[in-house]
Specification:
Length: 261
């Protein structure tokens, strides 16, 4: 099995100094093989450096230092070496470029893995924009995958800021027109999770005043077509729910899934 997780760390918001030990304690206990992280602080504190030094992770980051204006990044952290990595800006309409998709080729025991991590635009009224962003991501995945459908399927993880019944996710999971020919994904929670699985929830003390709580926004997905059973979800659970020394780590709960090899 491959254990893959996703988690939005909420950068330097709220009681961020108190949250740092809770974040890294949670990640250490999680012990996932690969974690996609969003809203990672790259400046005071440098959470990427902590991932490498405290948890011994290999890490790929987007945007790179040259383009990092706000000290907020997407990160792919891996227990296995990252052979190569890169990133691209996503369509954000009239706003300055800031949303990205990050990819990493990981040298795993099952062979090379292609992993993609992203954080899509968040507005309630941004469904059309998120669909454009997912179209860009799917086209990138298909282009990098080529005709090799026998290798391990690509893994897409991230905070997609869209609920499962949205047009964005329906198209991504084959319930609507695909973004790219012969490519859709399997949502690990939909296959193996129990209950609604809200990752942005009013049970979290940081979400008490949300206009729309109880949403599942964070996903672990494996690509299709694929050679069975590679990439088939085996389990899916949330994490980051319980306080660590009285502190909840983030405003999002994370998702961890086991994928078959």
């Amino acid at each position: 099995m491959i254990c893959v997780a996703t988690w939005n760390l909420w950068c330097r918001h709220g009681n961020w100094q108190e949250r740092q030990p809770a974040i890294f304690s949670t990640l250490a206990a999680l012990d996932a093989d690969i974690v996609g992280l969003q809203e990672v602080s790259t400046k005071d504190p440098d959470q990427v450096a902590q991932l490498r030094s405290e948890l011994g992770c290999h890490a790929a980051v987007s945007p790179d230092k040259e383009h990092d204006r706000w000290g907020i990044a997407n990160v792919i952290a891996s227990r296995w070496p990252i052979i190569s990595h890169g990133w691209e800006y996503l369509d954000v309409g009239d706003m300055p470029p800031h949303r990205t998709v990050l990819w990493a080729r990981i040298n795993a025991p099952v062979g090379d893995l292609m992993v993609y991590c992203t954080h899509l635009s968040h507005g309630f009224d941004n469904s059309e924009l998120r669909q454009r962003q997912l179209a860009e991501i799917c086209e990138l995945i298909v282009a990098q995958r080529g005709e090799d459908s026998d290798s391990y399927p690509p893994i897409l993880i991230g905070d997609l800021n869209a609920v499962p019944e949205s047009d964005e996710i329906r198209r991504l999971t084959g319930l609507g027109p695909a973004y790219a020919a012969r490519f859709v994904t399997t949502d690990a929670w939909a296959q193996r999770g129990e209950g609604v699985g809200a990752t942005y929830s009013s049970s979290n003390p940081y979400v008490l005043d949300s206009a729309w709580p109880e949403r599942r926004l964070d996903y672990v997905m494996s690509g299709w077509p694929r050679s069975r059973p590679k990439g088939n979800p085996v389990s899916a659970e949330r994490f980051g729910i319980e306080p660590v020394n009285g502190v909840v780590a983030s405003d999002h709960y994370g998702v961890i899934a086991e994928l078959a090899t």
